[in-house]
Write a structure and sequence with these properties.
The structure holds 2 protein chains of 2 kinds. By secondary structure, chain A is α/β, with parallel strands linked by helices. The longest helix of chain A has 15 residues. Chain B folds into 2 domains: about 180 residues, no CATH class; about 240 residues, MetI-like fold (Orthogonal Bundle). Chain B is built from 14 helices and 11 strands. In chain B, strands 6, 7, 8, 9, 10 and 11 form a 6-stranded antiparallel β-sheet that branches. A 5-stranded antiparallel β-sheet of chain B has the order 4-3-2-1-5, with no helix packed on it. In chain B, helix 4 packs antiparallel against helix 5, helix 8 crosses helix 10 and helix 11 runs antiparallel to helix 12. The longest helix of chain B is centred in the N-terminal third of the chain and has 30 residues. The radius of gyration of chain B is 29 Å and the shape is elongated. The chains are: A alpha/beta, B alpha+beta. At the A-B interface, strand 6 and helix 3 of A face helix 11 and helix 12 of B.
Chain lengths: ~260, ~475
C-alpha cells in the first residue's frame, strides 16, 4: 500500500474518479495490484510507465471494457463521482456513457467523419437532422477542430491522416458530454506536428472535463497534465503534481524511468 | 534452356478443367437439331432419314441407326453410298403423334385453299402459335361462360373452330411421293436442317430453352424443367435448414470478445468436419432421418409410408448438415475480418452486444456472410452421392417409368446429378437421351461453378463504405 503522503490533494480539488484497493487478476497474474488513486475533477492526469505496467487496464476499469473479457477477476472498488463502477447490479450502459475513450491506433469506424462523431448519439437513438448536426459541430468546436474538419464532414473518415483521425476520435469521445475522457496513448502513432494539434485540442477540451491520459511520451507527460501517476508492474509507484514528480521523484524507480535509465 | 516448370504446372492444372469445357461444348453441339439427309443406298434407292448418333459399339459394327419419315427407326446395314444434308426437309414435333419428317408440299387453309412454296413455309412458321392462342382463348370463354349458364355462342364458336382446325393441315411428302398430314394447331415445333453453322446456333437456342424449361410430359421430347426445379428447391432448402443456422451460430460465436476454448474448438472442428465426404452423410441421413425419424413420424401420424421413404426434406437436411461446416467456417473468418478496434470503439461508446452486432459487425461482414452462405450452397449443389440414399427419384416423365414427382417436402425429388448418374433415358437415343444426359451434367456443373463464383466474389475482401 502506498503511503498517503505520496498522493496529497491540492486544496479545492474534488475527487472525481477514485480507486480503492483496486486489484485486477487475469490468468493467475495481477494486472493491477491494490491501486489507491484519486483523480481530481477537471484535471488532466497522466499515467506513465513501461509497457505492461497496467495503464490500459486502469483505463478500461473506468470505461468497463474490462468487464467484457472472460477470465478477469477484480476486487476493490472504482468510483465515479462516488458511484461504484464495479459490483452487483451495475447499470453497465449508463456508466459507459459517462466516459469517452480514445485508443492508440488511430482507427475510425467505417463511414463519414460525421457518422463517426455522431456514433454515440446514434446509438442512443438520435435521428439524423439539424439537432445531430449541431451536436457534431459543438463537439468539434469544443476541441477547436471545427475549422479543420468542417469541409470533411461527409468524406470517409478513413481517408484522413492519422492526426485528423485522432481529432475525429476525440470529437467522438466528447460528443456525448462525458464526465471523464480516457485517452490510451492518443498520440502514440502520430508525428510531432500532429501530436501538437491533438494536444492543443486536448487542452481546449480539458477545462471542464476530467482527463486520464496514458502515455509513453515523457515530454508529453511533463507538458500537459496537472498530475502524473507512475505505474510499474501493476503497482502505483508514485503520484503527484507534474512538476514535483518530474523534478523531485520520491522513488528510485520513478527517477530511473523518468530519466530514461529504463523503460 | 530453362524448363518453365511453373508455367508447365499451371498449364497442367488448367488442362484438368478441359473435360468440363469439353462437356459444355459437346452439350452445345447436341443442342443443334439433327439434320435430315437424303440417303442413297448402293442399290440406288433414295429416302429421307435422320441419323441418330450411334454409340461407339454400333459404329464399330458398321451399323447406323436412322429415323425414317414415318417415325420408325431403321439400322442401315452398311455405310450408304451418299448422305447429303437436305435443308428442304422439315422435322416436326407435334402433340398428337410421333416425330414427323418430310418436304413441305403445302398448307391447307381454313378456306380450303392450298398454299405452296414461300407462302406455305411462312404459314408453317407462324400459324401454329396463332391457332394455339385462339384455341386457348376460346376454351377460356367456354369455361367462364359455363360458370353460370351454358353459353351457346361460346360453345358454338368452339365447335366451329374445332371443325375448321381439323381442316387446317400441313402436307409433308417423302421422296417416294407419300404424303403425310399434320394438324397445324398441334405442331409444337417445325425445324429444318441448319443451313450453316450460324443457323445451327440460332436453332440451338430455342432447343436449349425447350429442354430446360419444359416439363417432360408436355410432349414426347420432354425437358428437364422438373429436374432443374427439384435441384434448385433442394439446394435452397438445404441453405435454409443448414446454412442459416450456421450463419446464426457464427454470429453468436463472434459476439465473444476473446476467442475462448469453446470458440476455438468450434472453429477448428468445423473446418475438419467440412471434409467428411457426402456419401457418409448420405448413410447417416438414411439411417437417422429416413429410417429413424421418418419411420417414427409415420407411426405417430399413421401416415403410411410418407416420411419413412426418404424425400425432399430429408435430402435437404442431409445436404444442409454437410454444407453447414463450410458455411460456419467461412462465416467466422468473414466476421474475424471486422477489425477488432471497431468493436472496441463501439463498445467504448456504450454499444450493447446487439448494437455492436447490428451496427458494426453485420454491415461490415454482410458480404462475407452472404459469400459463406453461397459457398455452403455450392457444396450442397455439388453433392450427389448422399441423395441416392435419402429419396432421390430415378424416373422422369414419360421417358422414365412414371410421371415426374411434384415438389413436396415428403415426396421423392428429382436431381440433375442423380439422373445423370443413373439416366432413365435410353442412352443411345441420339434424339433425346444423349442431349438430356449431357445437358443435366452441364447444368449441374454450371450451377456449382456459378454458386462458387458468386461465393468467391462475395468473400473477396472489400472495405465497407459505411455503417448505419
Amino acid at each position: 500500500m502506498i503511503h498517503p503522503a505520496l498522493h496529497p490533494n491540492d486544496p479545492g480539488d474534488v475527487v472525481h474518479v477514485e480507486f480503492r484497493g483496486w486489484t485486477v487478476r487475469f490468468a493467475g497474474r495481477d494486472l493491477l495490484r491494490w491501486i489507491d488513486l484519486e483523480i481530481p475533477k477537471g484535471r488532466i492526469v497522466a499515467l506513465v510507465g513501461p509497457a505492461g505496467s497496467g495503464k490500459s487496464v486502469l483505463l478500461s476499469s473506468v470505461n468497463r471494457l474490462l468487464a467484457g473479457r472472460p477470465g478477469v477477476e477484480t476486487s476493490g472498488g472504482v468510483f465515479l463521482d462516488k458511484d461504484p463502477l464495479w459490483g452487483r447490479g451495475i447499470d453497465d450502459l449508463s456508466l459507459k456513457r459517462r466516459t469517452g475513450t480514445v485508443f492508440r491506433d488511430a482507427a475510425v469506424l467505417p463511414g463519414s467523419v460525421h457518422r463517426n462523431i455522431a456514433f454515440p448519439l446514434l446509438l442512443d437513438g438520435w435521428k439524423p437532422g439539424p439537432r445531430l448536426d449541431d451536436a457534431v459541430e459543438a463537439a468539434l468546436r469544443s476541441i477547436s477542430a471545427w475549422d479543420r474538419l468542417r469541409d470533411h464532414l461527409q468524406r470517409p473518415a478513413r481517408g484522413l491522416r492519422a492526426g485528423m483521425r485522432q481529432l475525429v476520435n476525440l470529437a467522438r469521445a466528447a460528443v456525448g458530454q462525458p464526465e471523464v475522457l480516457l485517452l490510451d496513448e492518443p498520440c502514440g502513432d502520430l508525428d510531432p506536428r500532429e501530436t501538437d494539434i491533438v494536444e492543443r485540442a486536448l487542452l481546449d477540451l480539458s477545462g471542464s472535463r476530467t482527463v486520464m491520459l496514458a502515455t509513453h511520451n515523457l515530454a508529453q507527460a511533463s507538458r500537459l497534465p496537472h498530475r502524473v501517476a507512475f505505474l510499474l508492474d501493476g503497482k502505483l509507484e508514485e503520484y503527484g503534481p507534474t512538476d514535483r514528480v518530474f523534478q523531485r521523484p520520491m522513488r528510485g524507480s520513478t527517477e530511473d524511468y523518468l530519466s530514461g535509465r529504463f523503460g | 534452356m530453362r524448363f518453365p516448370a511453373r508455367s508447365a504446372l499451371a498449364v497442367l492444372v488448367v488442362f484438368l478443367d478441359l473435360p468440363v469445357l469439353a462437356l459444355l461444348v459437346n452439350t452445345a453441339r447436341l443442342l443443334v437439331p439433327p439434320s435430315p439427309r437424303i440417303v442413297r443406298l448402293g442399290d440406288g434407292s433414295r429416302f429421307l432419314a435422320v441419323p441418330l448418333s450411334p454409340s461407339r459399339l454400333e459404329r464399330s459394327r458398321g451399323r447406323l441407326p436412322v429415323l425414317l419419315c414415318d417415325g420408325s427407326v431403321r439400322d442401315l446395314p452398311r455405310m450408304p453410298a451418299s448422305m447429303s444434308v437436305d435443308t428442304e426437309t422439315w422435322l416436326v414435333r407435334r402433340d398428337d403423334g410421333p416425330l414427323l419428317m418430310g418436304r413441305l408440299s403445302g398448307v391447307v387453309t381454313e378456306d380450303g385453299d392450298t398454299l405452296e412454296g414461300e407462302a406455305a413455309r411462312r404459314a408453317l412458321e407462324t400459324m401454329p402459335a396463332r391457332l394455339g392462342r385462339d384455341r386457348d382463348r376460346l376454351a377460356r370463354q367456354v369455361r367462364t361462360a359455363r360458370g353460370d349458364v351454358p353459353s351457346e355462342p361460346a360453345a358454338r364458336r368452339m365447335d366451329i373452330f374445332e371443325a375448321n382446325d381439323r381442316r387446317v393441315v400441313a402436307l409433308f411428302s417423302d421422296l417416294d411421293g407419300t404424303v403425310r398430314t399434320a394438324r397445324l394447331s398441334s405442331i409444337r415445333e417445325a425445324q429444318r436442317a441448319p443451313s450453316g453453322r450460324l443457323d445451327g446456333i440460332r436453332q440451338a437456342v430455342p432447343n436449349l430453352g425447350r429442354l430446360v424449361l419444359q416439363a417432360p410430359d408436355a410432349w414426347d421430347g420432354g425437358g428437364l424443367e422438373p429436374v432443374v426445379a427439384g435441384t434448385l428447391a433442394l439446394v435452397l432448402l438445404s441453405g435454409l435448414v443448414g446454412g442459416l443456422p450456421a450463419l446464426l451460430a457464427a454470429l453468436q460465436l463472434a459476439d465473444r470478445t476473446d476467442p475462448g476454448l469453446r470458440t476455438r474448438w468450434v472453429r477448428n472442428s468445423s473446418e475438419w468436419f467440412a471434409a467428411v465426404p457426402g456419401v457418409v452423410w448420405g448413410v447417416i441421413g438414411a439411417g437417422v432421418l429416413v429410417g429413424g425419424m421418418g419411420v417414427r413420424l409415420d407411426t405417430i401420424f399413421a401416415s403410411g409410408a410418407r416420411w419413412g421413404e426418404g424425400g425432399m426434406l430429408w435430402g435437404a437436411i442431409t445436404l444442409g448438415a454437410l454444407s453447414a461446416p463450410v458455411t460456419l467456417a467461412r462465416a467466422m473468418s468473414a466476421i474475424d475480418r471486422v477489425p477488432r478496434s471497431w468493436r472496441e470503439i463501439a463498445r467504448s461508446c456504450g454499444a450493447t452486444r446487439w448494437q455492436v452486432l447490428r451496427r458494426v459487425i453485420l454491415p461490415t461482414a454482410a458480404r462475407g456472410l452472404m459469400g459463406a452462405w453461397f459457398s455452403g450452397l455450392a457444396r450442397a449443389a455439388g453433392e450427389t452421392a448422399p441423395l441416392f440414399l435419402v429419396g432421390a427419384a430415378r424416373t422422369i416423365g414419360r421417358s422414365g417409368v412414371g410421371p415426374a414427382p411434384a415438389l413436396s417436402l415428403s415426396g421423392s425429388f428429382l436431381h440433375l446429378g442423380v439422373l445423370a448418374c443413373d439416366p432413365p433415358w435410353p442412352s443411345t437415343d441420339g434424339e433425346l437421351g444423349r442431349p438430356l444426359a449431357f445437358l443435366s451434367l452441364s447444368l449441374l456443373a454450371s450451377l456449382c461453378v456459378g454458386l462458387e463464383y458468386v461465393a468467391v466474389r462475395l468473400l473477396q475482401r472489400r472495405e465497407p463504405e459505411t455503417i448505419r
